[in-house]
Amino acid sequence: MRIDLDQDRCVASGQCVLAAPDAFDQREEDGIAVLLVEEPPAGAEEDVRQAATVCPALAIRLAE
Ligand code: SF4
What is known about what this protein does (predicted)? Predict the structure, then answer.
């Protein structure tokens, strides 16, 4: 799985960090999400799917 994060769409809600803290963090200055890994480790994929589902800005796309 590859994660594509569109920071231009991100509204800094933090939902992705709550759902998948191993894959997402937020910039301190404005809360915009940043990717920690482009390919989540085994075991984190379900969390990343959940993050993409709950993102209110549809800023997270996944390529399986
Ligand atoms: S859930 Fe979406 S809008 Fe919220 S911080 Fe993450 S990428 Fe940004």
Answer: Ferredoxins are iron-sulfur proteins that transfer electrons in a wide variety of metabolic reactions.
